[in-house]
Design goal:
10 helices; alpha+beta; 8 strands; 50% helix; Serine Threonine Protein Phosphatase 5, Tetratricopeptide repeat
């Protein structure tokens, strides 16, 4: 915990201006704030909420990373609305969950887990058309993260805007979480890859490595969480002013 607060203390506010892996936050901020831009955030968000399946990979990129510059950006914890949605989802009250989920996504359409659970809700209710639309959002957001870096080293990590998104990636890769370590502003997640038919494991790059008999092989996935730390730093500074 002490190390966590030391990172916050020494993390410069200019962290927002640095390029991390394949994400240039300076450029993202300028582009999504420009009302004349094709990637103006308000317009993109409106299209995503309307379940516009013509959104491109680049538009999803600006939607996801541009979210950190929105007033409602909150990378930690869940709102009461999200908790209500999750409760309904876990209780298999899918019709009610859909109504609650729509409210959540109107506030923040790049919530990956809610997008995934919405597609499950519609699938369970037999609505393939709507399930497909939410699947499009869900997998497009995952692909944004996969394209942000290699995820195999401290120097070229995946870039996420919420810690929970790390676990969504781990789940999508069908890996089993083992432990977490923080190195600077990078989360190093130790995972066990999905078992292969021949007892081998497969990492992010698709290369197989035989597991030693009686011992499960592990892999490390790297996630940059600079934006989450920057958010906390701003919160601490604002509270100090009060």
């Amino acid at each position: 915990m002490r190390a966590f607060f030391l990172i916050l203390f020494f993390l410069p506010l200019v962290a927002l201006s640095q390029k991390i892996s394949n994400v240039d936050y300076d450029e993202v901020k300028l582009t999504t704030a420009d009302s004349s831009s094709a990637f103006y955030y308000a317009k993109l968000q409106e299209r995503m909420i309307a379940l516009d399946t013509t959104l491109s990979e680049k538009e999803y990129f600006y939607l996801y990373y541009g979210n950190v510059f929105q007033s409602n950006y909150s990378p930690y914890g869940d709102s009461d609305a999200i908790k209500n949605f999750n409760d309904l989802y876990k209780e298999a009250k899918f019709t009610e969950a859909i109504v609650a989920g729509e409210k959540v996504l109107k506030e923040n359409p790049v919530n990956i887990r809610v997008q995934m659970r919405m597609l499950v809700c519609y699938h369970k209710l037999g609505d393939k058309v709507m399930a497909k639309k939410y699947a499009h959002n869900y997998y497009s957001l995952l692909n944004v993260i996969y394209s942000s870096g290699e995820g195999t080293s401290l120097e070229n990590p995946f870039v996420v805007i919420r810690v929970s998104d790390e676990y969504d990636i781990i789940s999508d890769l069908e890996c089993r979480f083992v432990k977490q370590a923080l190195v600077g502003t990078v989360d190093v997640m130790t995972v066990i890859p999905p078992a292969q038919g021949d007892g081998e494991g497969e990492n992010v790059k698709g290369k197989k490595k035989k597991s030693k008999k009686g011992k499960e092989e592990t892999r490390e996935l790297y996630f940059d969480v600079t934006q989450s730390f920057s958010y906390l730093q701003r919160q601490f500074k604002e509270s100090d002013k009060k």
